[in-house]
Structures are given as C-alpha cells and as structure tokens.
Amino acid sequence: MFHHVKELQFNARVSQPDPQFAKLLLEQFGGGNGELKAAMQYFVQAFTCRQAYPTQYDLLMDIATEEFSHLEIVGATIQMLLGPVNGELKNAVETNPVAKLADGRKGTKEELIHQALQNPQFLVLSGGGPTVTDSNGVPWSGSFVNANGDLTVDLRSDIAAESRAKIVYEYLMKFTDDPLVHESLRFLMTREIAHFQMFSAALANIQPNFPPGVRQGDPRFTHAYFNMSNGADIRGPWNQGSGPWAEGEWTYVEDPIATVRQTQGLTEMRETSPYSDDEVETANKKLAKLRHTEVSQAVPKGQNQWSDYGTADLQQRRKAS
To answer: How far apart are CA 21 and CA 185, in angstroms?
Structure first.
C-alpha cells in the first residue's frame, strides 16, 4: 500500500527557469538510467523475494520507494526549470507567447523553438511539463528493467544501475551553474552511492554468491585467459596469479589459435580450475538443493496469502514454516 506524502524527501529548488537544462534532466526522469527505471527494477525484483527472502524484499521495496521519491524530486525540478512555459503556451491570443520566455537572454526563444522541433513531446505535446522520455524524447520502456528471479544476479544488476545513475548525475552537474539545482543533483547522486553500498552489503550477505545463479562453470575454462590480440601483451590480476580467485590461479593461453587446434576445438583442454568435474557437479547439486529448499519451504503449496494483517512479521513467519 502506497501513501503519498506531499512534502518532497529533499527540498528541490531552482534559482531561475532554465528550459534547456530541464530537457537534459529528463534523462533522469524517463531515461534508461533514470529514477523511474531504478524504481521499477527494484519493485519488480522484490516480488520473487516476498516469501522466500523477506529481508531482501524489505530492502528492495524500501529502495524502490525511495527511487519513486527521487522521481518526484526530478519531476518537480524539471517543472520549476520550465518556469512559465505551461502558462505561456496556454495564451492562445498572443501571436508568439514563447518569445516572452526569453527574459532578455539572447537565443532563448530560438533555443526553445529548436527544442520543440527536435523533440515535440518536450514542449508541443506535453505543454511544458515532464515527459516519460529521455532527453532525446525516446519513450521509457519496460525493457530497461532487469529482473531475473535470482538475487545473486539481480543485486549485481542493481549495483550496476546505481553506478550508471551516479555518473549521469555527475555529468549533469557540469551543465548547470544554478547552485540550488546543484544541491538537489548532489543529494540524488549521493543517494546512488548509498544504494550501491546497500546492494553490495546485501549481496555479500548471501553465501555463496559466486558465480551468479546456481551452476558452477566448466573447470576447463573458468580460470583460462585467452590472449585474443597481437602486439604488446598486458598482464595484471585479471590474467595472472590468483587474481580474484579464492583458490587456483589464472591460466594464460598465449596462443589461442594453436590451443584450439591442438585440443580439437577446446574439447580436450585440461582443467584450469583447481576443482575436478566431479567436484563441480557435487557443488551444483548442493547449491541447487539449498536454493530449492529456501524457496519451497517458504512458499505454501496450497492456499496462499500475500499479507498477514496485524500478525507476526515476515521473518517470524518464515522461521515458523
């Protein structure tokens, strides 16, 4: 159940209208890395966690709801930056009411007309309000949402989403000199950093969480690095030594072409992982059983109910089951 509180989470303010920056800010309203995408992504991901993983459900719903709050902040800022556009467009008697928006600033009228021609929704169709598009007028799409039904995958998608949103705000701050808008953008950017850490902690709390999903990789190839280019070879923790591996080291395949030919298309390649095929299959079965048990024990096989009104919380319900 959602309940709207009319005060914004952060007091969005602008020093003066700036329709040009308002158009740029649409990127964080209806763009592929914006607040609506984040809110819907975490909201959708939460459904599969409700009964099986109530702790992560709580986290995802809390952050999704905060992202809706941020969407409102962005929309309010866009509206204030558009200033009197909506009112002037309603002045049907005036021959060219857009001219009034120039406020003595050279080129503003021409810029607004250019924006209207380039992106009709921004002014001509929306009447001077936010649109559910990016800054180029491309509509928001459900394809922006990444939800795969596995927390070890979804939380990594969320960490990446927060990273992209953070850098977009960082770039946007370079396109406005308004100190009050800067203040709002800095708040929104900082919350992306906080969410990044929340998702990182939630992922670390799931053990094991690597590789994403359930099945382990083929031990012939997990620790292999193929040198797929000529010229100077660059070595680092991504292709030598133990790198990120808790056990084993990278196997550097210096000549992939010769290796492919000598191993009959890699089918006869030896294990690069310290684990045998039998050990990997044992790990697959163990983790599959664990994940299956977590979900199947939490989800009733017969009648089900999403909410318990006025009773114990979800965590207590799960323990009782």
So the answer is: 12
